Amino acid sequence: MALDKNGIAKRIAQEVQNGYYVNLGIGIPTLVANYVREDIEVEFQSENGVLGMGPFPFEGEEDADIINAGKQTITTMPGASFFDSATSFSMIRGKHVHLTILGAMEVSQNGDIANWKIPGKMVKGMGGAMDLVASAENIIVAMMHTNKEGESKILKQCTLPLTGVGCVKKVVTNLAVLEVKNNAFYLLERAPGVSVEEIQNATEGTLIVEGEVPEMAI
Amino acid sequence: MINKKVNNLEEALKGVEDGMTLMLGGFGLCGIPENAISELVKRNLKELTCISNNAGVDDFGLGLLLQKKQIKKMISSYVGENQEFERQMLSGELEVELTPQGTLAEKCRAAQAGFPAFYTPAGYGTEVAEGKETREFDGKMYVLEPAFKADFAFVKAWKGDAAGNLIFKGTARNFNANMCGAATITVAEVEELVPVGELDPNNIHIPGIFVQRIFQGSNYEKRIEQRTVRQKQ
Fold it and tell me: Quick check: pTM over 0.80?
């Protein structure tokens, strides 16, 4: 069965390692924090200016001055810090953040990503995404494999305006874990009960299948 | 001590005119200069260019200026929370320069620090880099981005003193700190203006030299955009 958003987040959480500073984008990536192993030390960075983000506050304890990049009220963990926007992107551009997890509308087999604009229809802006994808060495994209019409979002070439070029190395979708290299998508894992054929049919880009492809362990 | 304190909003915004370029601090609605924005609305200044990470929501923050069509051009990174903004942009009434968030912050910081421009990897290979100078360093491509030039910066801090020293609270520091000293005149509004000498010099976030005018604001609404809570177990 294809994963839901929480399933995708659970699988991505396995990529988070002890000692990592992690930036989580809006949407599915935000859920990743709920599934990170409790026996490791991780700090979450939000690009609006906080390191050491904690869970959402209890009702009545919200503080308008403490939010995340999704403008949600949050709390902070012991050891947390606040800083200005330029410092925040020094952490990102300077490669001090180890892992970036963000959503996408499209990815292509050469590692391009599009997630900020649909010409003539939707222009929300790129926020911090362009800085994140241009600088981070370890980027995981969390997304649905197809759109609502069933069309693939895992493409030979992106059709939407790009957020970054040649930067995506790993994609986790509701169907599969894919590695992006050699101008192709390598199928690393299948969602539980999802066949290679199903993944093939949902993938417009070149899909490389080598040997037996294991199911995700989640 | 050089006294930066002004007596009221009128004095704080003296010299702001139609057609000027303004910087406004804040991220979403967090840390926005609410008092300065109300005064801009009240004065009905027109043809403004506003540099601000976001454009407020329909009925608060910069959304109030958009409603009255006071803004000619917005320079922002993310504008997803404002329908009137999206409408004006898609219809072509409003000029919009979308800028990656880190680049936006650095263009402020560069202006504050006296750098004319800087290279960043953000946006290389995308439409953001179109027409801009690019250059390779150590095998990676970068885009040349110029510092901002602005007439006024309106920032909001938690505490300040008449010397212009500022302390921010939580994530309300955001662009406010980077915009101080990045425009010809920086106007800081604070929730609490304390007597000079009360703030610990060790804990000043922005030294007063970057601020030309300061006043204690009033009636802060501090609206929360996405109130998100968890239940007690």
Answer: yes
